[in-house]
Every structure is written in C-alpha cells, then in structure tokens.
Design a protein that fits this description.
4 helices, 4-stranded mixed beta sheet, alpha+beta
C-alpha cells in the first residue's frame, strides 16, 4: 500500500506541550484547547462523542464531550480542561481518545464497534529504555531534545530523545509524510497526521496499520499497540 492522501497545510507541524507541564507553560489552556479543537473537529453525524480518560491508581473514569455547534463544544472542552488541571495537580493521569464515537457507551470507553469515522492517524514514538544503574538527572537540549534518567515502579529508565527536526526528517524519509501536529510526550513524541477527508473506520484502521508498520520497518521506535 502506498502513502495515503494527507493534508499537509501545517508543513513543519505544530508542537504542543502536555497539559502536565502547565506550571512551566502559562498558555497551557489555550494550547490544549487549540489542539483538541483541531483533533475533535468533524462534520460527520457519526462523530457524536469525544472521550477523556482519567486514571488515579487503579481507578479509571471516562468523560464524554458531546459534539454540538463549535461554540458549545468549545465551552465543554474548556470546562473539561479546568477539571483536568485540578486532577493533574492531585496526581491523576488524564488521556484523550483520538477517534470520535458514534454513540455514548453504556459503560467504559467504548469499543472499535462504536467508531464509524475518523480523519487522523497517529504514532507514539518513545525513546526510553530500562537500565541497571545510574543517578537520576534531566538535561534538556535544543529543539526538544532530552536526556534523562529517572525511577519508575522500582526500575531505572533512561531517556535519549533526539531533536524534533531529526525525528521529522526520519519520519518523512520513511513515509513521505510530515506530521500535521506533534505533541511533546515527555519520553518521546506523539505524531498526528490529518487526512484530507473523514473516512470510514475500517479504511482508517488499514491506513493506521500501514503507518505503524512502515515506521517500525524503518527502525523508528514506535509503539505498535497504537494501531
């Protein structure tokens, strides 16, 4: 399968810092709102609900934003962001689902059967590995590069994240594509590729598999569970 049809309006991508970095970024709310409005903007009536996942220890909660007119959806997202910020300050983890749901699940976050359309592909690229020894440290470089060592669950984790420009070059050489959006995920980058149109879910799944398989074959450290 060749490269699918993508919208390359944002040639170099826009980089968003995670909401968890809001103490370092005074514009976190505006950036997060801009990001979610882009990702959750749909025309299809099958894009009815957007999902936020909140995790605290073993407790998992799901929140749903119902698609409406742009102003109403914007108010819902803003309200959710303020709630998210409070929960992050209390140590909870918050995630969002990229794809919209056609119906609100009776329980849980829904399943693949609840997804009818989509217009985004994505890839989670990580640059972390477990090591046996070392002292914790963090060293930030230019263009989002990062070296770090930290403890997680009793393990030592080493991070060696290359500059974003280099990653984008490798991705473009492997796929012929430049991400429309990039999120600084801490240990790596989340890449989002916007299609020129909303397509049915089965076709989207095939394209997502193509993207992840192509990146993996090129030697890029991509999470294969995301496809």
């Amino acid at each position: 399968m060749g490269a699918p049809d993508f919208d390359q309006v944002l040639e170099q991508g826009e980089v968003y810092k995670p909401i968890a970095d809001s103490q370092k970024n005074e514009n976190w709310k505006e950036e997060a709102l801009s990001f979610l409005e882009k990702v959750w903007s749909y025309i299809s009536s099958d894009a009815r609900y957007f999902t936020l996942v909140r995790i605290s220890g073993k407790r998992v909660r799901y929140g749903f934003i119902e698609a409406a007119d742009p102003a109403t959806t914007r108010r819902q997202i803003l309200a959710a962001l303020m709630s998210i910020k409070r929960e992050l300050d209390l140590g909870e983890s918050v995630y969002f689902q990229v794809l919209p749901l056609a119906r609100k699940p009776p329980k849980g976050r829904g399943s693949a059967a609840d997804v009818k359309v989509g217009k985004w592909l994505w890839a989670d690229i990580d640059y972390k590995r477990e090591v046996s020894e070392g002292a914790p440290f963090t060293k930030e470089g230019e263009d989002y590069s990062l070296e770090a060592l930290y403890e997680e669950g009793g393990k030592l984790i080493r991070v060696e994240r290359p500059p974003l420009k280099l990653v984008l070059k490798e991705v473009e050489e492997a796929t012929g594509l430049v991400p429309s959006l990039v999120v600084d995920s801490g240990c790596g980058y989340h890449l989002y590729f916007m299609l020129t149109q909303e397509i049915e879910a089965k076709r989207l799944q095939r394209l997502e598999s193509w993207l992840i398989d192509t990146l993996q074959k090129s030697g890029i450290s991509v999470d294969t569970k995301s496809k």
